[in-house]
Predict the structure.
Amino acid sequence: MGEWSDYFEDFPEEAPQPPSAEERAKEKFDSDIKEMNSDAFALIAKTKKKANDAAQLQKKEFLESVDDCPQCGEKELNVYKLANKIYLCECQDCGIYGSGDDFSSALHKTASAIGDNIDWRDGSLFSVSTK
Ligand SMILES: [Zn+2]
């Protein structure tokens, strides 16, 4: 009888142990980091959304037409004619974009980016010309 307790007496390092203080501290540290990261990501997302919302408002006055997106096929491709006469396409659905001197070259540029996984929400080419 008592074979297992004999075994653990001989090999105490193999006996089930509650997590050590060090392990508990590491677990807490890991979950704290996770929490901090998600807070930071939430803040970044919020800041980004705010900037995008502001840019979307500015863009409105340059909106020329809405076309079919060459990538996702949705009629969500906003076509802007910017103050510097550059055409800019941005899909509101999948995020693909491209610009050019006229509509067809902007659309061509957009179509050639299919599969590149680009998203104008990560850095729009849109800028209000100060000229
Ligand atoms: Zn699209």
Observations:
- The longest helix spans residues 21-60.
